[in-house]
Amino acid sequence: MQINDDWPGYCVELFNYPEHYQGDLECVYIPHGVIMNRIECLARDIIEDIGHDDMMVLCVLKGGYKFCCDLVESIKAQSRSTNRSLTTRVEFIRFKSYMNDQSTEDLQIIGPEDLSVLKGKDKVEILISSQAIVDTGKTMRALLQHVNSFQPKLVKVAGLLVKRLPQRAATLPDYVGFVIPNRFVVGYALDYNEYFRDLNHICVISEMGKQKYKM
Ligand code: HPA
Ligand code: MG
Hints:
Blueprint: E1 25-30, H1 32-50, E2 55-61, H2 65-81, E3 88-99, E4 102-110, E5 126-134, H3 138-148, E6 154-164, E7 175-181, E8 185-186, E9 202-205, H4 207-212
Parallel strand pairs: 2-3, 2-5, 5-6, 6-7
Antiparallel strand pairs: 1-9, 3-4, 8-9
The structure holds hypoxanthine and magnesium ion.
Magnesium ion binds next to loops.
């Protein structure tokens, strides 16, 4: 689903959102209900493609936690309603690279997440890496390299947001929620210096918000 460059977003005052962010938002870019409906579509596509096996979902923290949770719930609900048997398991991994709204050079894998479950006789069939945002594709490349070193049988990537950049990421996720303009967005677990994760809608920050939470 494409969101055009000239999409102004919705007026913030039409929505319910945490009072402590009053004045900090320029617009509601993607309302929570729209996100949820789009995730149902991704879950349906994932089940149609690979829904007959055990699935491991690798959640990319912190920004991907809501997307991962809602995606897994939707996969479970839809496979139940179509009487498919499917087990889901969730593991977590964390990268850190953003300061304010700028990407920093080095990308660290944080946390001793043990992915050896991907190896050996109890090897899971399918790995879906769920990432909230793909812009340069740097995180996705590092993640795939890391994950592939554990030799899973099949890896698919689901990304909620893909940014339209002049030099577009060479590899795109297999399942994409929204292709958006190159704007910094927050909410639905995406942060600006750890703020705004508790906002359900995906929003654009106002100048006041940027100044208020600058590091
Ligand atoms: N918002 C929050 N975190 C991000 C973004 C964004 O637009 N792009 C990359 N990390
Ligand atoms: Mg961040």
